[in-house]
Amino acid sequence: MGGKEPTIDDEIGWERLNPVVSYANRLECPPGYAFGPRIVHDRQFIWVAEGSGKANIQGREYEATGGDLFHYGPGIVHRFEADSARPFVLYGLHFQLHGDIPAAGAVAYRPPAEKAPDWPEADVLPNRLTIGQPPNVLSVPEHIRCLGRELETLFHAIAHNFQHVDPMHHTFNRGLMVQLLMELRAIVRRQSEIGSENGLRMRDVRGRLKANAAMPYEREWLREWTHYHENHASALFRLQYGQSPHDYFMSCKLGLAKKMLIASELAVGEISEALAFSSLHYFSRLFKQRTGYSPLAYRRNGRQI
């Protein structure tokens, strides 16, 4: 199987994302059913569809119920035990972030390996899935709450497709894995926004910046909207969204410029002035830097069929 899977603490860019599902199933656990302590040789998601039980990852204990998603990578020791009264229904998904789909037959897969009972004494390894760079980063911890029908639909479809070994179904699963990872990115971002008072404030700042994108940027807005010092507010915004408030504001301003170039007959200089750019030269240079086109070329290309 071609391609090299990054080590567990490596990052991979979205441009290199080429996921391959090596195993997927849906498991209705008997009461008290347990597996592990063990390790896997690729990455794995365990998503709890129903029921409850316990999860232990490198000695960290979790009470697991419907909607809990667990992630671990190669060499991460883990154990799951279903409740006796309300046992798990689990989806298990083994995958690589970058690999080749075989022309025929099944994807190469190595079954999990059991570990000795004294496994908590083993070395603790980094355990986080990271794709991309800010502001478009996906960073999945080993445990996250993921409620909703969308995830169950994706896990179910992947498990169903895995029963077929032909390249077509492997290709389907590649597309579904990309959908799954994008859904997780949206979930992680929503949780960071609503998980704290600062998260809610930064969400409000983001909305206000977008609403004021036609105006000149005022750094004092950050103090006015948050009652924090501008530097502190800017640092919180960057932590949550992966870019500075000014960078986000300019992206919104350029988004307005794109719409005006396509939908209006205003001259480029008039658009620059309407959107409060400091000069036509700055507008044109920034627009080309961010989009790869001059404003006139963008207008011309955007009106073609």
From TrEMBL:
It comes from the Bacteria. The keyword Transcription applies. Keywords: DNA-binding, Transcription, Transcription regulation. The keyword Nuclease does not apply. Residues 203-301 form the HTH araC/xylS-type domain. It holds the Pfam family AraC_binding. PANTHER family: ARAC-FAMILY TRANSCRIPTIONAL REGULATOR, MMSAB OPERON REGULATORY PROTEIN. This is Helix-turn-helix domain-containing protein. The lineage of its organism: Bacteria, Bacillati, Bacillota, Bacilli, Bacillales.
